[in-house]
């Protein structure tokens, strides 16, 4: 059985507001993208990696990250699209003979082997799962006027992370159907499966440290997390 990691690094990083795209910013001397690639490279559960990046960053990625750090499982570095879901679709189209895909934000450096293993177990059992954590905050649903409409029970609310892991055939089919429709409000792959697929999605525990680097203060938080986990990369 072949598992492929699709690592997304084609975003503009507008909310980061930096000259260098956030996936290439350095945390303790290494690019953000390095950390998740390193985890997939060292994982026994992953056979190959596809990196999706901006058209203008393909050579940089190949030379300065994949060759420089010896990420031998990377099979292809391809151009993404305008939206995250376009980049995911490009990654899915680049897969060959994959049984399972781990779709991961390159902007989330701190996934772990344990998460990958838990995700693999869940996808083998159910065909679709997402990594996430129970919400620590109370969540409110707003109405169109910015007023509180309702409060879901916090015990049922999760914050969703990546990787999001699927049977390849099931997520590819869901994406093919979705692309015939309006995808404008789609923010993750589970939504594609929920709306256009045929599998129930298992929630699998990730970690509160599995943050997405989004705004400038996240880099400071990431440095602290890295100091804390003292991971040898
Ligand atoms: N067209 C896109 C948009 C996003 N991503 C990737 O999807 C992940 C999550 O997206 P997000 O954090 O929103 O990144 P950006 O789109 O770069 O950020 P922003 O919305 O601030 O521009 C990131 O690893 C990003 O590189 C991508 O591959 N292709
Ligand atoms: C996929 C995701 O990371 C799950 O939390 C998130 O939805 C990506 O959203 P973004 O707006 O592309 O950062």
TrEMBL record:
GO molecular-function terms, A-Z: nucleotidyltransferase activity
InterPro entries in alphabetical order: IspD, IspD/TarI, IspD/TarI_cytidylyltransf_bact, Nucleotide-diphossugar_trans
Alphabetized UniProt keyword annotations: Isoprene biosynthesis, Nucleotidyltransferase, Transferase
Principal EC category: transferase
This protein's pathway: Isoprenoid biosynthesis; isopentenyl diphosphate biosynthesis via DXP pathway; isopentenyl diphosphate from 1-deoxy-D-xylulose 5-phosphate: step 2/6
Catalytic function, reaction form: 2-C-methyl-D-erythritol 4-phosphate + CTP + H(+) = 4-CDP-2-C-methyl-D-erythritol + diphosphate
Enzyme Commission number: 2.7.7.60
Residues with site note (Transition state stabilizer): 15, 22
Listed Pfam families: IspD
Site location (Positions MEP for the nucleophilic attack): 154, 212
Role summary: Catalyzes the formation of 4-diphosphocytidyl-2-C-methyl-D-erythritol from CTP and 2-C-methyl-D-erythritol 4-phosphate (MEP).
Classification via PANTHER family: 2-C-METHYL-D-ERYTHRITOL 4-PHOSPHATE CYTIDYLYLTRANSFERASE, CHLOROPLASTIC
Protein family: Belongs to the IspD/TarI cytidylyltransferase family. IspD subfamily.
Official protein name in the record: 2-C-methyl-D-erythritol 4-phosphate cytidylyltransferase
GN (gene name): ispD
